[in-house]
Amino acid sequence: MVHSSARAGGVVDADTFRPPRALGVIVGGAFSLWAAFIALVAGVIAGGGSIEFTTYLGWVVVALFGSLALLFGWWTVGIARLAYRIDDEVLRISWCGNEIIVPVVDIQRVVPGRTVGEESVTGLNWWGCHIGRGVVSSLGATLFFATHNRPDENVFVVKEGRSYGLTVADQVAFAEACSRRLIVGFEPGESQRIEPRGLNLLPLWRDGNAWLVVSFVLVGLGVLGGYLYSQYPSLPTLVQIEFPSDTGIVRIGDRSELLRIGAVGGGIVAINLLLGFVLHGIERAASLWLAASAALLQIVLLSAAIIAFEGA
Asked: Does residue 100 surpass a pLDDT of 60?
């Protein structure tokens, strides 16, 4: 905690309070490492497997658990950097690249956790991490940004219509820090809001339409890969390759050449999504069209794969 002191003009320096974070970081990090280990094992098995549907499922496990490892890793970093800062006009709650802004003038009271009764949290809930919406029997709707192991480790910042559950070791100092700002008498000027920081400033994270299109792209690529992996084992070693037919001449080739359809699909997805990510903040429409075209091309390539495999 950084203690405050008064400056000229009655302005009070900022106070920063950090909750106990070790347990939450250890547990979150363990979840992340566990998911990464599963993804690694699945990747080794799938990488050494033959082209068949079970191998495809192995790659699906890699994608799912790899994403899970990144997600838990991000949350773990958020816990490690969780802090509550009270400056001249607002309480700032730092969580996962965002700052939740609560104007000090809106704070009605600060209540110790031992007096509030039963509480429940819905969201991220593990030992040393309680982040999300909840309900406190004596306060009602509450947003938790807490790392408590016992309810009495929390302090509740109460404002009209909502309260905030925070884990503060020195609850008296926290309450005094809030009171000093109210005594100084700042005029209302800040509104309650969420301020993104760092990479969270990118508008992509808040663009629901963009994520919907990306989900279609990934589903399309997954369906294409699933079809190729499921149908490939039934093909003879040498096949008639009729698609694409550049010269109108049917030729005989190794069946592995048909897997180029999947390679083309994956390459298009990687390039279009990368370009779309770069362009989104500059030209949103172009970014969405790049992603949408990748989704449409997955349909075209799936049709090509069906035609090629049936003619093989």
From this structure: yes
